[in-house]
Specification:
The structure is a homotetramer. Helices cover about 40% and strands about 25% of the residues of chain A. Chain A is an alpha/beta fold and about 190 residues long. Chain A has one domain (about 1-180): Flavodoxin domain (Rossmann fold), CATH 3.40.50.
Chain lengths: ~190, ~190, ~190, ~190
């Protein structure tokens, strides 16, 4: 039995929908229990109790939502001090509106969340290009949901993005189960 | 007359000392007024009233302090919508303890703050290698103050780092005065 | 009189077209001379003779073309040792095909080129959101030209992207002229 | 039986020593065969034949050595097209001289190599903080060897850094063996 924690912040519900899809994908892996929580409601014990952690955020000015950052500062720092998460599994996802067709800061957003996981000694699961519908909602680091078109007219998160998110959750749950059995570090 | 806003968050006073040194350097440029404020006390009007903005943060788990991020999410997003900061000048600095001799995430920390400034259309002032004492407290993106040695034993921010910070403030105040006179964009 | 050097690598001509547009924009600024060169043909003296440098690259596996990197390693390192570029002006642009709508690594690509410029002590000019047609070919760090659609079917670089590139060249030429007159560092 | 490929570029032998230590660590894992090659000598078939790939580079102007980038552009792009590396294991290491105590660009250097691996769909192994001697030669993304002191006086790569590199090789070989048995993606 392995456990996955899906953490998110959301403004208008887009990232929340993606979080639900990630959770659904993780649950589809036999022997996996999933907890889905808003960042504000997560504490260090929740994180420590998990074999895999997935964080999702809206992109705000090229980095993660401040509520995610508050969680990392106040709850993850202690886990880092204690080396409590070594060898567990991590992944990320994000949503974003904004202009253009280049993500408006989503790469740095995902990387700064992954930086936290790397400091915690966690193994990072990317999103392979041949994941079904990747071209509709994927980035190499994880699912990315456009919530507006290039003119910032709201479009909502597409079903395609939710399918990609589900795959990501499934991948991470599989990896968490596998790596729980056999430690890599030490 | 040009005005510089120095914004910071600080846990044990190290980043605050650096912020004071940055402010002192900016003040040394004739015709410059400087405002020094904690992130919690800054609002969008403070930012918009400035010709140059410098943000400093402790490095927490490889990214900026959540109080800085809260400021960016709640105050800078609106300025971005309004294109209110185009062509003004920006810079960053950071402090960090932690292990090793590679900054423990300071690069991504600085870059995610600079990402915010780039989205605001602000011109970015780096820290040149021949700045006096650079090798004691410099990184290409701005001053970096080690607040603990490689074993995490607290050392405080050195006088050398404060000198580097002063230079950075001076550079940015000069650039702000210059770019205020002659717009680059448009 | 100030001089701008536009450097690029190109596989199928997309980045070259953008480079030509950037050069055209720079030339439109009175008193500016422009040199446009492939990375293979640039040496340290070319760079040192310039008041502003703009580098463009295709995105390859999430970072710059190896010919750009070879130029940086073999020609820029020496300029860094000599502090030869301090206070001059820099900018970047990129093209990319690939899947999805998140740039496939363009942010890290641009940032790693900007890292080189920051180490050289150069002042960085971003691309403001209210640049005309930004939403068709802009990223906060510089113009980004999609050369294929989300299914990797080649589309070529659009006229809109070329217009954005022209604006970027014009901005940087203006900044170079201004900063040449009045040194910020030292 | 699983196979690890250690790829490196080296100027003065520092990164080569680290590569040898990484290879030694990987070899210490039962059932692992290791190939150690300079970037110039590696082709796509070498990479595809491996269950885990580790790349090491000197830091040059804040990004990877151009010989590493050439390898990625010419050999990895095709593997990306073919989805040939999904679910295999990846890691990085770097050496650097330069000023200061913040790594001079090592984070972006490591991240741009990891970006390549993420695009290839490879699972990323970081370096946990409690790895013995981490504080002498570790960064969250992998071993980092200082080859000069803060004044750029050459110091060579320390024995401590080599020990950290050995641990990293061992971790990755273990992960490669484990993930070879049980696919995570698909």
């Amino acid at each position: 039995m392995s456990s996955i924690l899906v953490i998110y912040a959301s403004d208008y519900g887009g990232t929340e929908k993606m979080a639900q899809a990630v959770a659904k994908g993780a649950e589809s892996v036999e022997g996996t229990s999933v907890v889905l929580k808003k960042a504000d409601d997560v504490n260090a014990a929740d994180i420590q109790a998990s074999d895999g952690v997935i964080i999702g955020t809206p992109v705000h000015m090229g980095s993660m939502d401040w509520r995610i950052k508050k969680l990392i500062d106040t709850q993850c720092s202690g886990l880092w001090m204690q080396d409590a998460m070594n060898g567990k599994v991590a992944g990320v996802f994000a949503s974003g509106s904004g202009f253009g067709s280049a993500g408006g800061g989503v790469e740095l957003t995902m990387l700064s969340m992954l930086n936290n996981f790397a400091e915690l000694g966690m193994i990072i699961i990317p999103l392979p290009k041949n994941t079904p519908l990747y071209h509709k909602g994927g980035l190499q680091w994880g699912p990315y949901g456009r919530s507006a078109d290039e003119n910032m007219s709201p479009s909502g998160i597409s079903e395609d993005v939710l399918k990609v998110s589900e795959s990501h959750g499934r991948h991470i749950a599989r990896a968490a189960a596998l790596l729980k059995e056999t430690p890599v570090f030490g």
